[in-house]
Amino acid sequence: MARYTGPVCRLCRRTGEKLFLKGERCLTPKCAIERRSTPPGQHGASRRRRVSEHGLQLREKQRAKSIYGVLERQFRSYFETASKKSGVTGQYLLQLLERRFDNVVFRLGFAESRSQARQIVRHRHLTINGRRMDIPSYQVNVGDVIGWREKSKESEPYKVLAKEVHRKPLPKWLSVDAQAITGRVEELPEPSDMDLKIEDRMIVEFYAR
Questions:
Q1: Model confidence over 18-68: pLDDT tens digits?
Q2: Which of 14, 117, 168, 206 gets the most CB atoms within 10 Å of its CB?
Q3: What's the whole-number mean pLDDT along residues 137-157?
Q4: Domain 8-97+197-207 sits in which CATH superfamily?
Q5: pLDDT for the residue 1
Q6: Please, is 75 exposed, middle or buried when counting C-beta atoms within 10 Å of its C-beta (0-12, 13-18, 19+)?
Q7: Which of 35, 33, 29, 27 lies closest to 14, judged by CA?
Q8: Are 161 and 128 in contact (CB under 8 A)?
């Protein structure tokens, strides 16, 4: 499966804000935005051109893709699915992104970043309703319980998690059993539950051109 393999800090510098793609590192002085906030490239510091409306829409789409670690083909597929639903297309698009299994693993505090969550999922450490699941893009549903395989409880990610899970803040649509180290989807995410402040309207306008 294709995926972005370049330096993720470059993505943050390109958007001009922290996307928290490296977990705890983004909260330290080592963060690329803290050290060098100019856009990447030889002429990044001298870029002062006015951005068009289309450019702003493109930037917002690219920002959302970077946050969730989704490439263009899959992102467009999410948009096409959302556009066929009744209601607000942009909000349903964000809900589809939030319901990705790797994102839910990150939101539950089982990983420091979405990229780490994706790795944990692909390494077959996790289960959904007792069945092993290694597809990061799998769409979770209300009532799904996310747990760890017995063999994976000897892994380093699990040992670190067992010490940290009590301190992780949770969105209201998820819950965690800190003793069993399992998570549950209590309800589908609503726009008010998302802390990313993504301008979904601009993404819809970009694809509607």
A1: 565 655 655 566 565 556 656 665 555 555 567 899 989 999 999 999 999
A2: 117
A3: 92
A4: Ribosomal protein S4/S9, N-terminal domain (1.10.1050.10)
A5: 45
A6: buried
A7: 33
A8: no
Domain ranges of the chain: 8-97+197-207, 100-185
Q: Are strands 131-132 and 174-177 parallel, antiparallel or unpaired?
A: unpaired
Say how far residue 208 (Cα) sits from the centre of its chain: 24
Output the CA torsion sign for 87, 88, 91, 93: positive
pLDDT of residue 140: 98
For residue 22 the two structure tokens come to 């490296």
Tell me the sheet residues that pair with 8: none
Q: Find residue 132's DSSP bridge partners.
A: 127
**Domain made up of 100-185: CATH architecture:** Roll (3.10)
| Pair type for strands 174-177 and 182-185 | antiparallel
Q: In the structure, how many helices (H) and strands (E) does the chain have?
A: 9, 5
**Cβ proximity of 103 and 111 under 8 Å:** no
Q: What is the pTM of this model?
A: 0.78
Distance CA 142, CA 121 (A): 19
Measured in degrees and rounded to the nearest 5, phi and psi for residue 10 equal -65, -35
